Amino acid sequence: MPTSHIARFLQEATVPDDAELPLGPDCLYGLYTSWCMLHQISPLDDLQFRDILQQHGVNPENFRRRITGPAATDYILASYPAAI
Hints:
Mean pLDDT: 88
Number of strands: 2
Helix content: 40-55%
Strand content: 5-15%
Strand order of the largest sheet: 1-2
Oligomer: single chain
C-alpha cells in the first residue's frame, strides 16, 4: 500500500501545537485508525505506522501536535464512551 496517506492523515487530523505534553504513540495510532475508518482506508499495523512516521520525519514518541477534525471526534468518543 502506498504510504502517501500518512502525509494526508497528518495534515487533516493534526495541527501544530507546542504543548508541554506530547501526544503519545498509542493515542496517535488510535487517531490514525479512526481517520482510516472515516476514509475507508485499511490502516497499517502499529509498527509499520511508526516506521513510516519516522520516514516522514515524525517521532511518534515526541509528537507535539494537537488532534483535530472528524477523526479526533471519532477517536475521543471511541476512547471515552462513558463521556457520551
